[in-house]
């Protein structure tokens, strides 16, 4: 047992050395409560047009089906907070882009570093089977991070960590080694309702539950079709994503500087004004968003968001 604990701590220490802000361990197993909650949410069609969420349901709620033979889910957090991020609270006269998307594509950054953590673990244990994930497969990442003691899922449905708030990415290694498991953290939202009160579209329809159909992040990123007229004014000045329910969360006063420099905001994304975005050509789009998560959205979708924001700002 002591050996297992020691190995676990060596992996955690290495994750922190690589630049992750936290690392935790949970036993890989079927998640009956989450399966029930997810099924209910899907039945109510709260997922909008994101039909891919309905795919691989069994694997999504059971990592041992996703990675046969797996015993452990290792979760890591990587902050993307930077003091250069402009204060977005109450800003209604400028176009806004969600903070997470202002740096290099997090999939690339996390993947690179998770590979290093996997190799370290493989060498340490003398062999390892498993896979790494960065928001790239049917994995309930927030649930696994919560079970690994890295935080609790708040009323805004984000994972909150007492030491670093919620401006971070989550990655996982699902592996066949048995390790020592962490204790889940209890909920520290208490009687706070700031995120629910601040959401401009009432997308948080009850504590801990978000209706994607009304969420600005979904409307400006995931929704491939044109945004319905009735929601167009709701997106206000958000061109890509929405941070409001995180910006108002008191725990984000704890945010820490992103250790992976690639996740720092790029001035040539963060500092642009509406006129620049309105005149953006497809070629400039590719240049400005080279290596960025925004490039995953299509130029046409991005430009359509810009047009709606331009309308909202001029009215
Ligand atoms: S991201 Fe924005 S729209 Fe979505 S729940 Fe949070 S505050 Fe509401
Ligand atoms: S704003 Fe308040 S209720 Fe919402 S997630 Fe943060 S602590 Fe929880």
Automatic annotation (TrEMBL):
HAMAP family linked: QueG (MF_00916)
Cofactor dependency: cob(II)alamin; [4Fe-4S] cluster
Residues annotated to bind [4Fe-4S] cluster 2: 199, 215, 242, 245
Sequence ranges assigned to domain 4Fe-4S ferredoxin-type in this UniProt record: 177-209
Name recorded for this polypeptide: Epoxyqueuosine reductase
Keyword Oxidoreductase set for record: yes
PROSITE patterns registered for this protein in UniProt: 4FE4S_FER_1, 4FE4S_FER_2
A Pfam family matched in the record: QueG_DUF1730
Chemical reaction(s) catalysed: epoxyqueuosine(34) in tRNA + AH2 = queuosine(34) in tRNA + A + H2O
Pathway(s) per entry: tRNA modification; tRNA-queuosine biosynthesis
Job description of the protein: Catalyzes the conversion of epoxyqueuosine (oQ) to queuosine (Q), which is a hypermodified base found in the wobble positions of tRNA(Asp), tRNA(Asn), tRNA(His) and tRNA(Tyr).
Cytoplasm found in the keyword field: yes
Residues annotated to bind cob(II)alamin: 60, 135, 156, 159, 170, 217, 242-243
Enzyme Commission identifier(s): 1.17.99.6
Binding site for [4Fe-4S] cluster 1: 189, 192, 195, 249
